[in-house]
Amino acid sequence: MGVDTNRPVTTEPYRILVRATGVIGIVFIVLLFGxxxxxxxAGEPPLDATASEAAKHFGNIEATWAQLALATSTxxxxxxxxxxxxxxxxxxxxEGDPPWRSTIATLSGALLAAYGLVGVxxxxxxxxxxxxxxxxxxxxxxxASVGFANAWIAVASFALSAGWVILSTRAxxxxxxxxxxxxGVGLVPARFVWTIDLWIMPYLLFWAWTLVLSIRLIRRPNLxxxxx
Length: 228
Description:
- With about 230 residues, the chain is mainly alpha-helical.
- It has one domain (about 10-220).
- It is about 75% helix and about 0% strand.
- It has eight helices and no strands.
């Protein structure tokens, strides 16, 4: 006999999963943005930085503290993978069959985590510090910048698919869905003008939504219960 995966879930293991997802969300944001904030203080150049600007930045983050910050950020990216998989499961319970939008959301979140773990050009170049040549610095920074811009599309894909589920099911509230939709719609055109700061607002909107959701999941373990 098959198991009905769409029935309302009110069991304690489910509520534990909801709270755990919220805790994971807060932890990975701290592990991710703590190092990013620290590294940005080391004279981080713009996305379209010149070769000399990039080389100077790599020299600044050769220090031990910067390398530790880069290593810590990998824990944040792994944590993000845990979060997106766990939240995707919760979203699938809300969406019902066929859970295609929640599946897209999960895979899109996994792509974002993969970007953070695979895109190592900045870390690799920083190992050489101020000894890195201008050509190598230019390529390393451009590679990181374009990869970052591509990651916005993964974020947009997650935001639009997850937001669609939330709007159609009202679990959680519709304003949470509209918040995601606005962030996702804003990130798509930003990719086409990626050297302009247009991306900052929708990008920050997305991460603010993630933080708010995580807090609400901890405080309200029935937030994504289809029965509510």
